[in-house]
Specification:
Elements (H helix, E strand, L loop, with lengths): L3 E2 L2 H23 L4 E7 L3 H16 L3 E7 L5 H12 L6 E4 L9 H5 L13 H8 L8 H14 L6 E5 L6 H10 L3 E5 L6 H6 L3 E4 L17 E4 L3 E5 L2 E5 L4 H7 L2 E2 L6 H20 L11
Parallel strand pairs: 1-11, 2-3, 2-4, 5-6, 5-7, 7-8, 8-11
Antiparallel strand pairs: 9-10
The chain binds NADPH dihydro-nicotinamide-adenine-dinucleotide phosphate.
Protein backbone atom coordinates (compact mmCIF):
# COMPACT_ATOMS: atom_id res chain seq x y z
CA UNK A 1 0.00 0.00 0.00
CA UNK A 2 1.19 3.52 -0.70
CA UNK A 3 -0.24 6.00 1.74
CA UNK A 4 -2.40 8.91 0.77
CA UNK A 5 -0.64 12.12 1.76
CA UNK A 6 -2.64 14.30 4.11
CA UNK A 7 -1.70 17.75 2.87
CA UNK A 8 -1.63 19.96 5.97
CA UNK A 9 -0.52 22.99 3.99
CA UNK A 10 -3.57 22.86 1.72
CA UNK A 11 -5.89 22.01 4.62
CA UNK A 12 -4.53 24.93 6.66
CA UNK A 13 -5.30 27.23 3.73
CA UNK A 14 -8.96 26.09 3.79
CA UNK A 15 -9.09 26.69 7.57
CA UNK A 16 -7.68 30.20 7.09
CA UNK A 17 -10.25 30.85 4.35
CA UNK A 18 -13.07 29.83 6.68
CA UNK A 19 -11.64 32.05 9.42
CA UNK A 20 -11.32 34.97 7.00
CA UNK A 21 -14.94 34.50 5.87
CA UNK A 22 -16.14 34.55 9.45
CA UNK A 23 -14.01 37.58 10.30
CA UNK A 24 -15.49 39.43 7.33
CA UNK A 25 -19.03 38.62 8.55
CA UNK A 26 -18.21 39.74 12.10
CA UNK A 27 -16.99 43.06 10.71
CA UNK A 28 -19.90 43.58 8.33
CA UNK A 29 -22.77 42.42 10.48
CA UNK A 30 -21.56 43.30 13.97
CA UNK A 31 -18.80 45.86 13.49
CA UNK A 32 -16.43 43.61 15.47
CA UNK A 33 -12.84 42.83 14.47
CA UNK A 34 -11.30 39.88 16.31
CA UNK A 35 -7.92 40.74 17.85
CA UNK A 36 -5.00 38.52 18.84
CA UNK A 37 -2.28 39.72 21.22
CA UNK A 38 1.02 37.86 21.13
CA UNK A 39 3.55 38.41 23.90
CA UNK A 40 7.20 37.56 23.32
CA UNK A 41 9.74 37.84 26.12
CA UNK A 42 13.35 37.84 24.99
CA UNK A 43 14.93 37.19 21.62
CA UNK A 44 14.89 33.43 21.11
CA UNK A 45 15.36 33.15 17.32
CA UNK A 46 12.82 30.32 16.80
CA UNK A 47 10.24 32.16 18.91
CA UNK A 48 10.81 35.35 16.90
CA UNK A 49 10.10 33.45 13.67
CA UNK A 50 6.89 31.93 15.10
CA UNK A 51 5.67 35.28 16.43
CA UNK A 52 6.32 37.01 13.11
CA UNK A 53 4.49 34.28 11.25
CA UNK A 54 1.53 34.41 13.66
CA UNK A 55 1.28 38.21 13.32
CA UNK A 56 1.41 38.05 9.52
CA UNK A 57 -1.26 35.36 9.22
CA UNK A 58 -3.49 37.14 11.77
CA UNK A 59 -3.51 40.25 9.60
CA UNK A 60 -4.00 38.22 6.40
CA UNK A 61 -7.31 36.81 7.66
CA UNK A 62 -8.50 40.32 8.53
CA UNK A 63 -7.97 40.27 12.29
CA UNK A 64 -6.09 42.79 14.41
CA UNK A 65 -2.65 41.71 15.58
CA UNK A 66 -1.09 43.21 18.70
CA UNK A 67 2.54 42.29 19.27
CA UNK A 68 4.18 42.93 22.62
CA UNK A 69 7.92 42.37 22.60
CA UNK A 70 9.50 42.53 26.04
CA UNK A 71 13.13 42.51 27.17
CA UNK A 72 14.61 39.18 28.19
CA UNK A 73 14.97 40.45 31.78
CA UNK A 74 11.37 41.64 32.11
CA UNK A 75 10.17 41.01 35.66
CA UNK A 76 7.31 38.64 36.42
CA UNK A 77 5.34 41.55 37.91
CA UNK A 78 5.64 43.56 34.68
CA UNK A 79 4.63 40.58 32.53
CA UNK A 80 1.62 39.87 34.76
CA UNK A 81 0.65 43.55 34.60
CA UNK A 82 0.68 43.41 30.79
CA UNK A 83 -1.46 40.25 30.80
CA UNK A 84 -3.90 41.92 33.18
CA UNK A 85 -4.14 44.87 30.81
CA UNK A 86 -4.79 42.54 27.85
CA UNK A 87 -7.36 40.56 29.88
CA UNK A 88 -9.29 43.81 30.34
CA UNK A 89 -8.93 45.09 26.78
CA UNK A 90 -12.20 44.49 24.94
CA UNK A 91 -10.47 44.69 21.54
CA UNK A 92 -8.28 41.71 22.45
CA UNK A 93 -10.09 38.37 22.10
CA UNK A 94 -7.08 36.07 22.17
CA UNK A 95 -3.85 36.23 24.18
CA UNK A 96 -0.83 34.06 23.48
CA UNK A 97 2.37 34.14 25.51
CA UNK A 98 5.11 32.62 23.38
CA UNK A 99 6.85 29.74 25.15
CA UNK A 100 9.45 28.95 26.35
CA UNK A 101 9.79 31.90 28.73
CA UNK A 102 13.17 32.91 30.16
CA UNK A 103 14.10 30.83 33.23
CA UNK A 104 13.30 33.49 35.87
CA UNK A 105 9.62 33.55 34.86
CA UNK A 106 7.17 30.96 36.19
CA UNK A 107 5.41 29.61 33.09
CA UNK A 108 2.49 28.05 34.94
CA UNK A 109 1.83 31.24 36.88
CA UNK A 110 2.00 33.35 33.71
CA UNK A 111 -0.24 31.05 31.63
CA UNK A 112 -2.78 30.77 34.44
CA UNK A 113 -2.98 34.56 34.72
CA UNK A 114 -4.51 34.75 31.22
CA UNK A 115 -8.31 35.05 31.16
CA UNK A 116 -9.32 31.45 30.22
CA UNK A 117 -11.82 32.83 27.69
CA UNK A 118 -8.90 34.54 25.87
CA UNK A 119 -6.46 31.62 26.29
CA UNK A 120 -6.23 30.73 22.59
CA UNK A 121 -3.36 28.30 23.25
CA UNK A 122 -5.67 26.29 25.53
CA UNK A 123 -2.96 25.86 28.18
CA UNK A 124 -4.78 27.51 31.12
CA UNK A 125 -5.59 25.00 33.85
CA UNK A 126 -9.32 25.80 33.49
CA UNK A 127 -9.26 24.92 29.80
CA UNK A 128 -7.29 21.75 30.54
CA UNK A 129 -9.98 20.77 33.05
CA UNK A 130 -12.84 21.65 30.73
CA UNK A 131 -11.33 19.60 27.90
CA UNK A 132 -10.69 16.69 30.28
CA UNK A 133 -14.33 16.69 31.38
CA UNK A 134 -15.68 16.98 27.85
CA UNK A 135 -16.88 20.58 28.22
CA UNK A 136 -16.57 23.52 25.86
CA UNK A 137 -13.04 24.91 26.17
CA UNK A 138 -10.24 26.54 24.25
CA UNK A 139 -8.36 23.60 22.70
CA UNK A 140 -4.56 23.54 22.20
CA UNK A 141 -3.81 24.39 18.57
CA UNK A 142 -1.56 21.51 17.48
CA UNK A 143 -3.84 18.67 18.66
CA UNK A 144 -6.86 20.57 17.34
CA UNK A 145 -5.18 20.69 13.93
CA UNK A 146 -4.49 16.94 14.08
CA UNK A 147 -8.12 16.25 15.01
CA UNK A 148 -9.41 18.38 12.13
CA UNK A 149 -7.26 16.48 9.63
CA UNK A 150 -8.34 13.11 11.06
CA UNK A 151 -12.02 14.07 10.93
CA UNK A 152 -11.62 15.34 7.40
CA UNK A 153 -9.94 12.11 6.31
CA UNK A 154 -12.13 9.58 8.14
CA UNK A 155 -15.41 11.33 8.80
CA UNK A 156 -16.26 9.57 12.06
CA UNK A 157 -13.43 8.35 14.32
CA UNK A 158 -15.82 6.42 16.55
CA UNK A 159 -14.51 3.04 17.70
CA UNK A 160 -11.08 3.42 16.14
CA UNK A 161 -7.97 2.35 18.07
CA UNK A 162 -5.70 5.36 18.52
CA UNK A 163 -2.19 5.40 19.95
CA UNK A 164 -0.65 8.74 20.90
CA UNK A 165 3.10 8.53 21.42
CA UNK A 166 4.06 11.30 23.84
CA UNK A 167 2.33 12.59 26.96
CA UNK A 168 3.24 16.28 27.02
CA UNK A 169 0.72 18.83 28.24
CA UNK A 170 0.78 20.72 24.96
CA UNK A 171 0.42 17.83 22.50
CA UNK A 172 0.13 14.26 23.79
CA UNK A 173 -2.39 14.62 26.62
CA UNK A 174 -4.82 17.02 24.91
CA UNK A 175 -4.57 14.91 21.72
CA UNK A 176 -5.61 11.85 23.68
CA UNK A 177 -8.53 13.77 25.25
CA UNK A 178 -9.73 14.92 21.83
CA UNK A 179 -9.57 11.41 20.38
CA UNK A 180 -11.45 10.10 23.41
CA UNK A 181 -14.01 12.84 22.86
CA UNK A 182 -14.49 11.46 19.33
CA UNK A 183 -15.00 7.98 20.81
CA UNK A 184 -11.67 6.41 19.89
CA UNK A 185 -10.16 3.76 22.14
CA UNK A 186 -7.05 5.64 23.20
CA UNK A 187 -3.64 4.50 24.41
CA UNK A 188 -1.04 7.04 25.49
CA UNK A 189 2.50 5.73 25.07
CA UNK A 190 5.64 7.36 26.50
CA UNK A 191 9.28 6.69 27.25
CA UNK A 192 8.44 4.00 29.83
CA UNK A 193 5.94 2.13 27.65
CA UNK A 194 6.81 -1.57 27.32
CA UNK A 195 6.80 -3.15 23.87
CA UNK A 196 6.12 0.14 22.11
CA UNK A 197 6.26 -1.45 18.61
CA UNK A 198 3.47 -3.88 19.58
CA UNK A 199 1.40 -1.10 21.13
CA UNK A 200 1.72 1.00 17.98
CA UNK A 201 0.92 -1.98 15.71
CA UNK A 202 -2.59 -2.18 17.24
CA UNK A 203 -3.47 1.34 16.16
CA UNK A 204 -5.80 2.47 13.39
CA UNK A 205 -4.55 5.99 14.17
CA UNK A 206 -0.98 6.76 15.28
CA UNK A 207 -0.12 10.25 16.48
CA UNK A 208 3.62 10.65 17.05
CA UNK A 209 4.62 13.57 19.30
CA UNK A 210 7.96 12.55 20.68
CA UNK A 211 10.69 14.88 19.46
CA UNK A 212 12.95 12.07 18.23
CA UNK A 213 13.89 12.14 14.55
CA UNK A 214 12.32 9.30 12.53
CA UNK A 215 11.85 7.12 15.61
CA UNK A 216 8.82 5.19 14.33
CA UNK A 217 9.69 2.78 11.48
CA UNK A 218 7.22 1.35 8.99
CA UNK A 219 7.19 -2.09 10.57
CA UNK A 220 5.50 -0.63 13.68
CA UNK A 221 2.55 0.50 11.58
CA UNK A 222 -0.55 -1.59 10.94
CA UNK A 223 -1.40 -1.92 7.25
CA UNK A 224 -3.74 0.92 6.30
CA UNK A 225 -3.38 2.91 9.53
CA UNK A 226 -3.42 6.70 9.55
CA UNK A 227 -0.19 8.29 10.73
CA UNK A 228 -0.11 11.84 12.06
CA UNK A 229 3.44 13.05 12.57
CA UNK A 230 3.66 15.99 14.96
CA UNK A 231 7.45 15.92 15.28
CA UNK A 232 9.61 18.75 14.04
CA UNK A 233 13.27 17.78 14.21
CA UNK A 234 16.15 19.58 12.57
CA UNK A 235 18.88 17.16 11.50
CA UNK A 236 21.94 17.27 9.32
CA UNK A 237 22.07 14.74 6.48
CA UNK A 238 24.52 14.59 3.60
CA UNK A 239 25.92 17.91 4.80
CA UNK A 240 22.51 19.62 4.56
CA UNK A 241 20.07 20.77 7.23
CA UNK A 242 16.79 18.92 6.98
CA UNK A 243 13.47 18.93 8.79
CA UNK A 244 12.14 15.49 9.67
CA UNK A 245 9.30 14.18 11.77
CA UNK A 246 9.09 11.57 14.51
CA UNK A 247 8.21 8.83 12.02
CA UNK A 248 10.38 7.43 9.28
CA UNK A 249 8.30 8.80 6.43
CA UNK A 250 9.56 6.56 3.62
CA UNK A 251 8.98 3.23 5.36
CA UNK A 252 5.74 4.31 7.09
CA UNK A 253 4.26 5.61 3.83
CA UNK A 254 4.65 2.11 2.33
CA UNK A 255 2.36 0.59 4.97
CA UNK A 256 0.06 3.35 6.15
CA UNK A 257 -3.27 4.22 4.54
CA UNK A 258 -2.63 7.92 5.03
CA UNK A 259 0.21 10.00 6.45
CA UNK A 260 1.12 13.61 7.15
CA UNK A 261 4.47 14.75 5.73
CA UNK A 262 7.07 16.85 7.54
CA UNK A 263 7.22 19.65 6.60
CA UNK A 264 3.76 20.43 5.25
CA UNK A 265 1.61 18.30 7.58
CA UNK A 266 0.74 19.20 11.15
CA UNK A 267 3.01 22.29 11.25
CA UNK A 268 0.91 24.63 9.07
CA UNK A 269 -2.27 23.56 10.89
CA UNK A 270 -1.01 24.88 14.23
CA UNK A 271 -1.14 28.59 13.34
CA UNK A 272 -4.34 28.07 11.32
CA UNK A 273 -5.94 26.66 14.50
CA UNK A 274 -4.64 29.59 16.53
CA UNK A 275 -6.55 31.89 14.16
CA UNK A 276 -9.59 29.60 14.41
CA UNK A 277 -9.42 29.73 18.23
CA UNK A 278 -9.21 33.54 18.15
CA UNK A 279 -12.35 33.88 16.03
CA UNK A 280 -14.09 31.33 18.27
CA UNK A 281 -13.07 33.29 21.38
CA UNK A 282 -14.35 36.50 19.79
CA UNK A 283 -17.72 34.91 18.99
CA UNK A 284 -18.05 33.52 22.53
CA UNK A 285 -17.12 36.89 24.07
CA UNK A 286 -19.88 38.54 22.06
CA UNK A 287 -22.46 35.75 22.53
CA UNK A 288 -22.53 35.13 18.77
CA UNK A 289 -22.78 31.81 16.91
CA UNK A 290 -19.41 30.08 16.61
CA UNK A 291 -18.03 29.22 13.19
CA UNK A 292 -18.75 25.61 12.29
CA UNK A 293 -15.91 23.10 11.86
CA UNK A 294 -13.30 25.25 13.58
CA UNK A 295 -13.62 23.83 17.11
CA UNK A 296 -13.41 20.38 18.65
P1 LIG B 1 7.97 16.81 24.89
O1 LIG B 1 9.46 16.66 24.90
O2 LIG B 1 7.32 17.70 25.87
O3 LIG B 1 7.34 15.35 25.06
C1 LIG B 1 7.85 14.25 24.39
C2 LIG B 1 7.12 13.01 24.80
O4 LIG B 1 7.68 11.92 24.08
C3 LIG B 1 7.24 12.68 26.29
O5 LIG B 1 5.99 12.34 26.82
C4 LIG B 1 8.21 11.50 26.32
O6 LIG B 1 7.92 10.55 27.32
C5 LIG B 1 7.94 10.85 24.98
N1 LIG B 1 9.11 10.11 24.56
C6 LIG B 1 10.39 10.49 24.52
N2 LIG B 1 11.19 9.50 24.08
C7 LIG B 1 10.39 8.44 23.86
C8 LIG B 1 10.61 7.13 23.41
N3 LIG B 1 11.82 6.68 23.11
N4 LIG B 1 9.55 6.31 23.30
C9 LIG B 1 8.31 6.73 23.60
N5 LIG B 1 8.03 7.98 24.00
C10 LIG B 1 9.06 8.82 24.15
O7 LIG B 1 7.61 17.18 23.40
P2 LIG B 1 6.31 17.94 22.78
O8 LIG B 1 5.08 17.15 23.05
O9 LIG B 1 6.36 19.36 23.14
O10 LIG B 1 6.69 17.85 21.23
C11 LIG B 1 6.83 16.62 20.56
C12 LIG B 1 7.29 16.88 19.15
O11 LIG B 1 6.29 17.64 18.47
C13 LIG B 1 8.58 17.68 19.02
O12 LIG B 1 9.28 17.23 17.89
C14 LIG B 1 8.09 19.09 18.78
O13 LIG B 1 9.03 19.87 18.05
C15 LIG B 1 6.87 18.83 17.96
N6 LIG B 1 5.87 19.88 18.01
C16 LIG B 1 5.32 20.28 16.84
C17 LIG B 1 4.36 21.25 16.80
C18 LIG B 1 3.78 21.63 15.49
O14 LIG B 1 3.24 22.70 15.37
N7 LIG B 1 3.83 20.74 14.49
C19 LIG B 1 3.89 21.90 18.02
C20 LIG B 1 4.44 21.34 19.23
C21 LIG B 1 5.41 20.37 19.21
P3 LIG B 1 8.11 10.85 28.89
O15 LIG B 1 6.95 11.70 29.28
O16 LIG B 1 8.06 9.49 29.51
O17 LIG B 1 9.42 11.53 29.02
Amino acid sequence: MTAQIIDGKAFAATVREKVAGHVARLKEEHNITPGLAVVLVGEDPASQVYVRSKGKQTVEVGMNSYEHKLDVDTSEADLLALIDQLNNDKDVHGILVQLPLPGHLNEDLVINSIDPAKDVDGFHISNVGLLGTGQKSMVPCTPLGCLMMLRDHHGSLSGMDAVVIGRSNIVGKPMAQLLLGDSCTVTIAHSRTKDLPDVVRRADIVVAAVGRPEMVPGDWIKEGATVIDVGINRIERDGKNKLVGDVDYASCAEVAGAITPVPGGVGPMTIACLLANTVTACCRANALAEPEGLTA
